Every structure is written in structure tokens, then in C-alpha cells.
Amino acid sequence: VQLVESGGGSVQAGGSLRLTCVGYNLDYNNYYMGWFRQAPGKGPEWVSGINRSGTTTFYSESVKGRFTISRDNAKNTLYLQMNSLKPEDTAVYYCAARSIGAWGQGTQVTVS
Predict the structure, then answer these.
(1) N or C: where does the chain have the smaller number of CB atoms within 10 Å of the terminal CB?
(2) Could you report the per-residue pLDDT of 54-91, keeping only the tens digit for each?
(3) What are the angstrom distances between the C-alpha of 106 and each of 22, 41, 71?
(4) Sheet holding 67-72, edge to edge
(5) CA triplet 53, 24, 32: central angle to 5 degrees?
(6) What is the pLDDT of residues 26-51, one digit of tens each?
């Protein structure tokens, strides 16, 4: 099982980024998926989650209204659309299927 994130980068405050997480060697639609992040010097933080069918989404209070999680099970792909980015969103972002202990390698998001 492998999860590969992409789409991170450096943006100015108020900008947008779209993260992508592609899964390999797993049946994507069997798993609840989530996004997590870890800022420098801080512990991991849950950001957002989505149920297997994509019909129910969950967000931390810190990103609610600004981030949107979605998935395309036919493409084994998870997305995180991030709008109105703030400097405090700076972190390494990870996708995960926690029920099977699968994590991506992370993608850096820097907001200045």
C-alpha cells in the first residue's frame, strides 16, 4: 500500500492550493480517508476526513469554511482544496487511511 501526496508549494496569504493524494495497491473506496498536518515544532494535527463514499465530510475548526475535502474512488485519489490560506496553515500535509496504518510521505505547504 502506498499513498503519494502532491500539490504543495509556497503561496502568499489569501492564496489557494489543491493537494492530491493517490493511492496504490489498495481498494480506495473501502477506507475512510483523512488529511493531517504537522507544523514546525508542533505535533500532528487532524485537518479533515471523508467517508468511504465521499458523501460525508469533516473539518477541524481551524480550517472549516476554507478547506474542502473530496475524493474520486475511480481514480484512487483524495483531494484537499485549500482557499484563503493563512501563515498558520504552514505545515507538512499528509493523507492517511488510518484504519490500515497507511500514510503518505507528506507535501510541504508554506504560506507567507
Answers:
(1) C
(2) 999 999 999 999 999 999 999 999 999 999 999 999 99
(3) 12, 16, 18
(4) 2-6, 17-24, 77-82, 67-72
(5) 30
(6) 888 899 999 999 999 999 999 999 99
